[in-house]
Amino acid sequence: MPPITTIDDLKTIYKRRVPTMFYDYAESGSWSEQTFRENVSDFEKIRLRQKVAVDMTNRSTATTMVGQDVAMPVALAPVGLTGMQHPDGEIKAARAAEKFGVPFTLSTMSICSIEDVAAHTTKPFWFQLYVMKDRDFIERLIDRAKAAGCSALVLTFDLQILGQRHKDIKNGLSAPPKLTIRNMIDIAQRQRWAWGMLGTKRHSFGNIVGHAKGVGDLSSLSSWTAEQFDPALNWDDIAWIKERWGGPLILKGILDVDDARRSVDSGADALIVSNHGGRQLDGALSSIRMLPDIVDAVGKDIEIHMDSGIRSGQDVLKAVALGAKSTYIGRSFIYGLGAMGEKGVTAALNVIHKELDTTMALCGERLITNMSRDNLLIPKGFR
Ligand code: FNR
């Protein structure tokens, strides 16, 4: 196998190894996928300012996220069904992240449970919360995350109802996959995945099954979400969640200046400028385009993170230079995980780190914390 030098290399292997249903689940956006595409293409519009003859020794990409040390300004984003991309996927990704020194965020909709991940890792990970109608269950989930030693809670605010992804419906997305003739042929062509899945007991939603009241048929993700998630979730809910949790709280899915101001008022410790990787409101602006306005409006009042569209260290650098304290990667680590398990996630982190470190040096900076808009050439009208 040729050496892995880009995130795209991992994606090529990922596509060959993972059943189509799960590849499509990750590699799609909602409706026309305009926002999904622009999340990536808008990064290319920002250019970097080259600076030469600057001392580039003793460089550091280290920074902090909600007061916690990180080796670079990148965390693994919460991704549902990660354990379907690779057997025990959440455990594998969490282990790669902890070895690298970046946070891993476990999704509510994970296959490995909070307790599974805690049992197989040594450092605290983060937990992402979706708020469902059954508030007793949500309180128990928060308590479980606390008991497992999770060190931040990421509250997702942009998915009370699900943005439609056509392929998931056409594929009949479920976990575990339904054994239709089409799926069986697809899986037979991906034996590595199938043997791995036979070797684990974790085949369905670990945090939910057996814990949530009224959860019956989890076989269709979209109808289950519509039934369980709370469409009434609003700003007032942050108070009880914050009180119950008691630790660092990060609000995910902020893409509007007024919402950013309300995030500050809510007392959250950080917000994530995010459009859910283009999976929710199709037609929304890319996160990287919205980032400068949000930084200008509330950057002094709250820590700002961003995600959606990051496929390289250059992308991370641009987001940080625009004012994000840190970023998250979703698909970029999923490609690595599906391609090669824990090693693949490590490969993704290494690729991004190398790109980030070299690009920073060629911009004439030694510390990631020194990057600013001065390092960028931003086209007129970008924002
Ligand atoms: C997600 N995302 C997500 N977010 C969340 O808060 N809870 C979740 O369970 C999921 N599940 C999920 C599944 C898949 C397959 C993807 C691709 C994404 C959104 C995720 O946390 C993050 O916002 C995006 O992935 C960022 O965009 P990129 O990096 O994938 O372009």
Automatic annotation (TrEMBL):
GO biological process: aerobic respiration
Binding-site positions, glyoxylate: 25, 165, 276, 279
Alphabetized GO MF terms: FMN binding; L-lactate dehydrogenase (NAD+) activity
Active site (record annotation): 276
Residue stretches making up the FMN hydroxy acid dehydrogenase domain: 1-381
Gene Ontology terms: cellular component: plasma membrane
Binding site for FMN: 78-80, 107, 128, 130, 156, 252, 274, 307-311, 330-331
Keywords per UniProt: Flavoprotein, FMN, Oxidoreductase
InterPro entries, per the entry: Aldolase_TIM, Alpha-hydoxy_acid_DH_FMN, FMN-dep_DH, FMN_HAD, FMN_hydac_DH_AS
Cross-referenced Pfam families: FMN_dh (PF01070)
Cofactors demanded by this protein: FMN
CDD domains: alpha_hydroxyacid_oxid_FMN
PANTHER family found in the cross-reference section: 2-HYDROXYACID OXIDASE 1, S -2-HYDROXY-ACID OXIDASE-RELATED
Family: Belongs to the FMN-dependent alpha-hydroxy acid dehydrogenase family.
Name the record gives this protein: Alpha-hydroxy-acid oxidizing enzyme
Source species of the chain: Paramylibacter kogurei
Lineage summary: Bacteria, Pseudomonadati, Pseudomonadota, Alphaproteobacteria, Rhodobacterales
Gene, per the UniProt record: lldD
